[in-house]
Design a protein that fits this description.
The structure is a homodimer of 285-residue chains. Chain A has 285 residues and is an alpha/beta fold. The first copy, chain A, folds into two domains: 2-173, Rossmann fold (3-Layer(aba) Sandwich); 186-279, Pantoate--beta-alanine Ligase, Chain: A,domain 2 (2-Layer Sandwich), CATH 3.30.1300. Chain A has ten helices and ten strands. The radius of gyration of chain A is 19 Å and the shape is globular.
């Protein structure tokens, strides 16, 4: 496996692979890889392309009171993992390499970035779209893989690519879960044993809510209340949001008569977890 | 010469040229080409590359009370001109091709876009950087040429390319002028004979101001006053701005002790003209 922290060196490698006619696939990440990331990488490998994994904890997407400093990092462990997965190139730039001088240019996806995680994390998605567009320009992949645990991020990246005509196909990969249902996240390491147990209410209530919808429940507000009640009953988690939204454009939904996303963010102590489920609705129109 | 209004068709052509090992050069324009544009195209041709000229009057960079509707257009005349220049590919997309649905994604270069033309044309540079980044993603040029009559635009594009790691070299080409000094502009056709004559005060006063600086004048405010006085004395032009700024980052300048840009915008009737000069200062430090 090749590895570099240097943009010019990466560009040279990519150029050579493209000249050989290789398709380039990018899996962007913030590292501290778990089985969710490894699933993304597996999907990337299945394309038969030249697979690049980037590891960069992007300061631009963390708010001043968020967990940038304590976000877990372990580059050598990550490097070993991706090498075992057969990744071709690991790109792990420093903050100075990515931001050699103060940034004044930003890429912003309006509307989609104002709701859900965007409402309580101002500037977060602007940081994400800006760094992802930098990574896209640096790596110039043909295909990029994103996990759907960050469903809103996945939709925002898709919209950015479409609006700005980026020559890249964005593929989403479903959430990977522990056997007991907990969505994999690098932040799960911060949970105490008790919080870890309580956090199961998230995936459980999402599943139950999806089942209610499939059985004909149509009120989005009722579904949200059902989940909120379950979380408050079964855990000490502090709800950031629980929302039913259109699964394509995140617009508000009152009556559930199309594909919807149920998304939530809940804090367990200082650790903020997110989870979601997309529910197909049979329409009998 | 090839020509297309279609993004997929353009991409196919570019891909083939890249596979042949050709360098791609882009000259973006809003059409109604004059000798200024043709100079850009000549410079592009001198590279020996595959030269793409785009013609697109971008609604996104015009304010609601600006001259989008009446901006001059003549595609067939332009097509003939660029063919005579030996351009390889003319790209002239429709508004629907460039904006098939409402845009929610924007690229914004902060700071640099707030001053000079940005101060009185809110959203103008955001429209420029967004459409240029789209054109860059569509054409994927190795080199792009921009005229320095829009000096601020040139600096903003350079900064966008650098901040977002676009793999493109931006080259600026000096202002092309009529024999009597008037900077070439597609908007000059709107000037009456009298306005056309009066507008000469712009280039003349810029030249005289540059000469004052070369002879040792150091006060930026005095230089601005000198130009403003000349414009008010010799024309009916209504001054939008006359400013001396740092030629690299457009920051404010009080004492002229480094390379400066003197830039101005003046309205003659409904027609807004811009002009500028970059003045090198010998530093004896």
């Amino acid at each position: 496996m090749l590895r570099t922290a240097n943009i010019s060196e990466l560009r040279k490698i990519i150029k050579e692979e493209k000249q050989r006619g290789k398709t380039i696939v990018l899996v962007p990440s913030m590292g501290y890889l778990h089985r969710g990331h490894l699933t993304l990488i597996e999907k990337a490998k299945e394309t038969g392309a030249f697979v690049v994994v980037s590891i960069f904890v992007n300061p631009l997407q963390f708010g001043p009171n968020e967990d940038y400093a304590r976000y877990p990092r372990d580059l050598e462990r990550d490097a070993q993992l991706v090498e075992e997965c057969g990744v071709d190139l690991l790109f792990h730039p420093s903050v100075e390499e990515m931001y050699p001088r103060p940034m004044v240019t930003f890429v912003e996806v309006g509307q989609l970035d104002k709701v859900l995680c965007g409402a309580n994390r101002p500037g977060h998605f602007r940081g994400v779209t800006t760094v992802v567009s930098k990574l896209f320009h640096i790596v110039q992949p043909d295909i990029a893989f994103f996990g759907q645990k960050d469903y809103q991020q996945y939709l925002i990246i898709r919209r950015m690519v479409s609006d700005l005509n980026l020559p890249i196909e964005v593929r989403g990969v479903p959430i990977v879960r522990e056997k007991d249902g907990l969505a994999l996240s690098s932040r799960n390491v911060f949970l105490s044993a008790e919080q870890r147990q309580e956090a199961l209410v998230l995936s459980r209530s999402l599943q139950e809510a999806a089942e209610l919808i499939r059985r004909g429940k149509q009120s989005a507000r009722d579904i949200e209340d059902f989940i909120r009640t379950a979380i408050r009953r079964d855990s000490q988690g502090v709800i950031d949001y629980v929302e039913v939204r259109d699964a394509e454009d995140l617009s508000e939904v009152t009556e559930i008569n199309r594909q919807v996303l149920i998304a939530l963010a809940v804090k367990f102590g200082p650790t903020r977890l997110i989870d979601n489920i997309v529910v197909e609705v049979e329409t009998n129109v």
